[in-house]
Amino acid sequence: MRLFRKRRRLVRSQDPTDKPLSISELQANKPALAPVDVSTVQERVYQSLRLALLKGEFLPGEQVSIRGLAQAFGTSPMPVRDALARLVAERAFEQPSARLMRVAPYVASEHEECIRIRIQLEGYATERACRNATTLNIETLKEHNAQLKEAMKDDDFEAALAANHAFHFELYSTSGYPQLVDMIANLWLRTGPILASAQKDRELFRRLFNIGHRIHNEAIQGMEAGDIKKVKRAILLDIRSTHFSIRHHFQTLDGQT
């Protein structure tokens, strides 16, 4: 009430002939409070989880706690539950029971299928990227590859995964086809954790990314020379060589070799 009385006095002092505003009029003139947009929170959680999958911050078959993720994001469980439901629909997570949520596990046949599709999509994205690439794009690719090399020197596997992801998606984004990039990203949701699982074998991980760094350099050289075939050959070699090493890694774990 004091606030409204004060505002009445201010109105009178400005023009004695004016009629004082009523409480209802003052409230009508008060700026409306913006409602809390729950969908925005859910979208933030969803995009954060997607990025974590793409960068290999989860492992295949890893169980996750909705309550634990909610605490990490500083939200209630509801937006986390909704975000995970979307990722289950995209086959990045699985929900075997009402209480259990986990990252999709490694299944050899499914991974093989995923890699074959990636080869087609990423090969096409690479071709288009070569036609659209600017000097700035090429310099950005060099920066990401340098970050990959530095991360490997420091045995910083998380940074190596992030740099590898940044390199590939800088390249694919240069294709100028956002829908194509989205399709590739959806496939990486499942391959990101699988690649990250190689961290358990440090020698394998170092070998994978040291080879990857050299292949990336070949791709960059091809882009600078305008040699589309060389760039595409390098990127597809990167995908295939990683796939073969990962497949052998899981076969060894299963005692199949």
Describe, in plain words, how this protein is organized in 3D:
- The chain has 257 residues and is mainly alpha-helical.
- The chain has eleven helices and three strands; from the N terminus they run H-H-H-E-H-H-E-E-H-H-H-H-H-H.
- Strands 1-3-2 form a three-stranded antiparallel sheet.
- A hairpin with a 6-residue loop joins strand 2 and strand 3.
Question: Which short descriptors sum up this protein?
Answer:
257 residues; mainly alpha; single chain; 3% strand; 3-stranded antiparallel sheet; 3 strands
Helix-strand pattern: HHHEHHEEHHHHHH
Helix fraction by DSSP (H/I, runs of at least 4): over 70%
Overall morphology: globular
Q: What is the overall pLDDT average?
A: 85
Low-confidence stretches: 1-18, 20-27, 30-36
The whole-angstrom Rg is: 26 Å
How would you summarize the topology of this molecule?
Blueprint: H1 2-14, H2 23-29, H3 38-54, E1 63-64, H4 66-73, H5 77-89, E2 93-94, E3 101-103, H6 108-132, H7 135-153, H8 157-173, H9 178-196, H10 202-225, H11 228-253
Task: Give a quick precis of the structure.
This protein is mainly α. It is built from 11 helices and 3 strands; from the N terminus they run αααβααββαααααα.
